[in-house]
Amino acid sequence: METSDINILLQELKNKKIIGIDGMPGVGKTTIVAKELSERLNTNMPIIELDTYLPKDKTGRKRYIKYVKELNYQKIRDVIQKARNTFIIEGVLLCQIIEKLDIELECLIYVKSVNARYYNVTKTYRWIDETDCDFQCTPEDKINEATKQGKIVDKEINKTNNSSSELPQLIKDLFYYNKNYRPFDKADHIYLSSWE
């Protein structure tokens, strides 16, 4: 089921106790979906935000270098145990992480960022991250393509930083993850998070 109405999603989820929310970075997994569901489903159902279980660098910023490997799984398991199997877990690469945690979701929601202006004209939603998620080539070819596009962008804005042409590891991991796990196809529900 695809919906942009949180109330419809709430009706579908009212008896679910272990809910996963997946999607690309910045689509609203925490701010739009998880917090709203938590407040309205089960008097502040605990939210496990995977990003908060990443180590920090010397400046105090979270490290996203090897996301799946660097998560503190023991702390996540401790929170799951305290939540007594009633929680929302959200983050990128969620299906892969769920495997490592050895837990089973009762419901998987995939959040797609869609363009509301496009809908207003065509009456169909345009999935903004579609080319980064649902692609036909190999992940290696997608990484090469994205790296080349990154270099073009760098030239256009006259950047001279050589390290900026290297794709961040998380982006590479997302290409492999989307190709191999296809969470948008596995999801029980698709939530359309729109912006203009």
In short:
With 196 residues, this protein is of the alpha/beta class.
In the CATH scheme, what's the topology name?
Rossmann fold
The portion of residues forming beta strands comes to: 15-25%
User: In order across it, which strands form the biggest sheet?
Assistant: 1-6-5-2-4-3
Report the biggest beta sheet as strand number plus sense, adding barrel if it closes: 6 strands, parallel
What's the structural blueprint in terms of helices and strands?
Layout (H helix, E strand, L loop, with lengths): L1 E2 L2 H8 L4 E6 L5 H13 L5 E3 L17 H4 L2 H10 L4 E4 L3 H8 L5 E9 H7 L7 H4 L5 H18 L12 H13 L1 H4 L2 E7 L1
Parallel strand pairs: 1-6, 2-4, 2-5, 3-4, 5-6
Write out key terms for the chains shown.
single chain, 196 residues, alpha/beta, 6 strands, 45% helix
Please explain how this structure is put together.
With 196 residues, the chain is α/β, with parallel strands linked by helices. It contains ten helices and six strands. It has a single domain (2-195), classed as Rossmann fold (3-Layer(aba) Sandwich). It has a six-stranded parallel β-sheet, sandwiched between helices. The longest helix is centred in the last third of the chain and has 18 residues, at 139-156.
